[in-house]
Amino acid sequence: MPKSENIAKGQTFVKRLYLPRIIGLGLGFFCVASVFFQKETHALVWLGLAANGFLWPHIAYFAAKNSRNPYKAEIRNLLIDSFLGGVWVPLMSFNILPSVIVIVMMSMDNISAGGIRLFIKGFLAQLLGGFLAILFVGLNIRPESTMLNVLACMPMLAVFPLSIGIITYRLAIKLSQQKMEMKNIDIDLKNANANLTAAYEGLRESEKRYRELSIVDDLTQLYNCRHFFDQLRMEIDRADRYEQPLTLLLLDLDNFKEFNDTYGHVEGNQVLLRLGQAVKRCLRQTDSAYRYGGEEFTIILPMTTSADSAVSAERIRSEFKEEIFSPAPGKEVHMTMSIGIAQHKPQESMETFIHRVDQLMYQAKKHGKDRVYSETT
Prior knowledge:
- 71% of the residues lie in helices and 10% in strands.
- By secondary structure, it is an alpha+beta fold.
- It has two domains: 3-184, no CATH class; 225-374, Reverse transcriptase/Diguanylate cyclase domain (Alpha-Beta Plaits, 2-Layer Sandwich), CATH 3.30.70.
- The protein has a five-stranded mixed beta sheet with strand order 2-3-1-6-7, sandwiched between helices. Strands 4-5 form a two-stranded antiparallel sheet.
- Strand 6 (337-343), helix 10 (350-366) and strand 7 form a beta-alpha-beta unit.
- Helix 1 (3-37) runs antiparallel to helix 2, helix 3 crosses helix 4 (96-137) and helix 8 (265-282) packs across helix 9.
- The chain is rod-shaped and about 135 Å long.
- 30% of the residues are buried.
- The model has no long low-confidence stretch (mean pLDDT 89).
């Protein structure tokens, strides 16, 4: 907790005890004075009693308020209260009613301010004060209380507990209001947290969408070339680490340049779009397809041998060949593709792997197009 906050809380504690001390010690003066009035009492004792009853509360308040640690200073003031209360008991010759009231009221203050621990310290302070007073004035016990003593103690018995009750009630009201304010603050914090969570989720969704857009080809909705190299590098590392098969397919549309030159880029884009859709339909969940560049596409097939990949490649080739394009009125065109297949070799570099599958795709072109070509073909 910051030092300034500790000081502020300590000063609040000091203010809370200021009025009860004024009331308690002021009324206590009359309890003790009723005993001193009935016997010979030195002027210095009267002066000390008056100072304790009417001057000390203000000295204690200003001393604690201006202390570096107001809370500890006020606890020290309470122990001084107890010590002085213990002094007055022997000086009153242990007059039963005023003595009990002084001891009980001091103890009540200590318990309300610091609990059992402060009560014990206060009780010891009372014993110390009483012991020192006995050393100075001797032990003179006259416990009888007169009617004057009873009447002088009545205000203390009536007013002091009542004042403590009022102060406690006001404190309870204040605590209730603070509790309500804290509840409202808690609700506001929860709402703010919900808004921040929603904003964070929105940001994450936007980030996810942006990341997807950055790795996805706009036209075909397949992954782009940049993501292909990142993913292939990762799959090669996994295949080498776990000694698993990994196959790469390279697809190239046959005679696509002539189609583009004849019917235009808009119709050419329709071919690329529908090729991307056909590839997606033929892939497993573990496979991934990419637009490699122009009319070239590549597919990564993890944990798949070259022979098994040939089945997937043939399915893609035959399914796409069944697609009918109408680039001009009354014109129907079927497009074909050439596919190269290569299986990764242990510890083979990514560049060499791509070069091999690229050469196999050109072999498919060279041997008549519209076919799948691998190293075992």
